[in-house]
Every structure is written in structure tokens, then in C-alpha cells.
């Protein structure tokens, strides 16, 4: 047995402040809020993957390292909307890869606790 047929069901995003974490992911990023289990856990539905925004138990250090890439249909529109809400992006959306049929765009940012996040959009190229 291995993970060949597994799917990612839940990701943990550690935050220092429970209420600020909920407000950022729900109100700023607009990810649908599912429920909270105060004072440490809040759950969101991110395209079928559950996002757990949680405060670490006392004495347990937050592990940061994996970036979360949010695939969006219109990276420029989402970028503009989030920027208007105060999200500080590292750079404007930019092309990171081209194929004969599409371009892959990224726009990186962090949440209030320094967790690495990014918008990702794939744009088809026009034929001809």
C-alpha cells in the first residue's frame, strides 16, 4: 500500500492569533468558512480541500515551510481584489513558465504570520 491514490484532504496553516487568522482567511482571502473549534482551530473549504487555520498548543512551535498555491481563473482580477484589501504581494503577477499552449502565472504573498501563499493562474495562448 502507498499513497498513489490518496488525495490531500486537509492542510494546517499555523497562526499566532486565532481571531486574526479567521478574519484573514475568511474576510480578506474570501475562503469559505466551515466551522470553528475555539480557541485553536478554524476550518475552511478551499476547493474541496479542508484548510485548518490553527493556533499551536503551548510549547509547540509552528512549522512553516510548505507554500500553498491557490489556483484561480483570473489571476489579475484576484490579485487586484486582494491588493485592495491590503494583501502585500512580493511582486505583480508574473509568468514563470510557458508551453506552446499556455502560460503559468504566479503572484506570491504571505499571511499575517509569514506563511507562504501564492496565486497561480494558467492562461491559454491564442492559436496563430
From TrEMBL:
Instruction: Determine the domain of life of the protein's source.
Output: Bacteria
Show where the VOC domain sits. Answer: 7-122
TM region positions: none
Q: Which InterPro entries match?
A: Glyas_Bleomycin-R_OHBP_Dase, Glyas_Fos-R_dOase_dom, VOC_core
**What's one Pfam family the UniProt record gives for this protein?**
Glyoxalase
Q: Which PROSITE patterns match?
A: VOC
Q: Please identify the protein, giving its name as recorded.
A: VOC domain-containing protein
- From which organism does this entry originate? Dokdonella soli
Amino acid at each position: 500500500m502507498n499513497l498513489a491514490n490518496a488525495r490531500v484532504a486537509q492542510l494546517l496553516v499555523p497562526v499566532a492569533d486565532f481571531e486574526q487568522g479567521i478574519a484573514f482567511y475568511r474576510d480578506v482571502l474570501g475562503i469559505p468558512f466551515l466551522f470553528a473549534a475555539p480557541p485553536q482551530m478554524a476550518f475552511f473549504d478551499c476547493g474541496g480541500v479542508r484548510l485548518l487555520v490553527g493556533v499551536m498548543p503551548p510549547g509547540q512551535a509552528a512549522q512553516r515551510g510548505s507554500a500553498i498555491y491557490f489556483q484561480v481563473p483570473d489571476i489579475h482580477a484576484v490579485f487586484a481584489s486582494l491588493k485592495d484589501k491590503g494583501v502585500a504581494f512580493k511582486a505583480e503577477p508574473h509568468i514563470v513558465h510557458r508551453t506552446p499552449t499556455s502560460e503559468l502565472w504566479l503572484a506570491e504573498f504571505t499571511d499575517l504570520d509569514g506563511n507562504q501563499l501564492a496565486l497561480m493562474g494558467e492562461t491559454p495562448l491564442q492559436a496563430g
